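Trying the structure run again after the queue cleared.
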Amino acid sequence: MSIGASRRNGASVTAFVALLALACTPPVAQAGDSQPPAVDSSVPAAPTFGDTAPKISQAELLQRMQAGERQMLLLDVRTPEEFAAGHVPGAINIPHDQLAARLDELAAARSNEIVTYCRSGKRAALALTTLHDAGFEQLQHLEGDFLAWQAAERPIKAVATSATKDDQTQH
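Done. Tokens:
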């Protein structure tokens, strides 16, 4: 191999490495860009507090409810319609997407244990992260959320709506 061929091959390798490095570098936002660079969805997001919050079993929660434990707040973060259709007795309802704006409603419970649930877990995890970020410390996630509570035929309380009251009075 001649010296000239060796230099050409070396230059080709250097160019290839430079192109490879450029291809693997995420784009940098430029002034005037209307959208942020794409995020690689194959890289999992770091877990939030809500994803790793301590769990409380349904049996333990039910036992504590039956014992009349008063230092515990049960927070249902589903929609008002879901809550009205049926919820764990004693729960209060603050939808997860309103929680940050309504934290003052929970100020008296800041030093209490708060057990949070939704239908299946996603909204409760978001709510637990919101509460944790706001300084609440005694937080637990109801294992299995409302779907499992309902499937286990545990006590459920429904809120009578005006339509339900009208239907009941008509019969």
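The first helix runs from residue 3 to 24. Worth checking whether this holds up in the mutant runs.
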